[in-house]
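Purpose: get a first structural picture of the assembly so the mutagenesis plan has something to point at.
Setup: two entries, given in the order below. No constraints added.
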Amino acid sequence: MTEARPASADGRQLLSLWTRIGLQSFGGGQAVQLLAYEELVDKRRWLRPEEWAEAWGVCQLVPGINVVAVAALTGSRLAGWPGVAGAVSGLMVPSVIITLLMTVAFSLIRDVQLVRAALQGIVFAAAGGSVMIGYRLIRPILAASGAESAWLLWFGGLVVLTAALLALSGAVPLIAVLIGAGTLSAIVSAFLRPPAGPPE
Amino acid sequence: MIDAPTLAWLLLRATLLSSGGLGNLPLLHQDLVSRHWASDRDFATALVIGQVAPGPNGLWVVALGYLIYGLPGAIMATFAVTAPALLVVPVGHLHRRYADNRAVRGFVRGLALALAGSVPVIFIRVAYSSYGFDWAAAGIMVGAIALIASRRVPIIAVLALGAAAGVAVYR
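Result (structure tokens, whole complex):
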């Protein structure tokens, strides 16, 4: 069905497409993800579903905003560096400007009692959202670890708990916690062989 | 006084060592609050704006940059969250060669798990120290978790319900 895809996507098309995606996605990353999939994969067929999935996987490996990385990587696959420039500036420029305008407005009115009350409600709803974001990050990693070895699963759970407790206590510099967790996990993963079986 | 090169470096460093829109929150919180360059309330306001504004949630840093250091702060923050993501283009080419290395995969996983464990903790701490915590706050939080977990309600609607609940309870 989707074996052939139109070869032509240029930087300008990507610029206008990602501008639209960025401006429509009130509510953040998940909204961007849904809209971008609809446009790039379903409607225009510039990417196949498995190419999209692979792009998301690679984007977890680089720092920064994942959605920006997805825009950059798919832009580069479709149209080289002009594609990267078009997709990333389309996603970022209008959204950054609106975010700035909202910040100016908010900083003027954040002491109005009604605004303060609304902000207080949103902040706790968003805090709940951050719990779900954490959960949705942790679950696939632990599932993948558990598929390799039960020890890796326990180790991963221990890393999450330790990091949460250290963040709560604030006693240890978090940068040390993060690099320590990465290093420890690299060592553990390198030495824990998966049970003998056919390679994946 | 805020020292601009240091601020730029702290913003960039927090992003380089994290992933996802909120991944830089724990490091930035520790770095900026300990220097008294930002308050918990600045963080709370910026996080709300990042959630409500269009585009990626990661733009909350742009709001934070503006709140603590004006337009130059916002520009530094925009650069800090955009530039590292562009690494994806070379990484995309290298990926197939090293993705199967156990140590590399282990490092990425360990870092991601530690981040995922600390982000909600810091988020709740920021909300708590700027607004306090009571039964209504706990209720709003649990309600939001339930609505998002159901996957039936768009995030923006959950935030609007949070705002309405806030107005009803705290006005």
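The first helix of chain B runs from residue 4 to 16.
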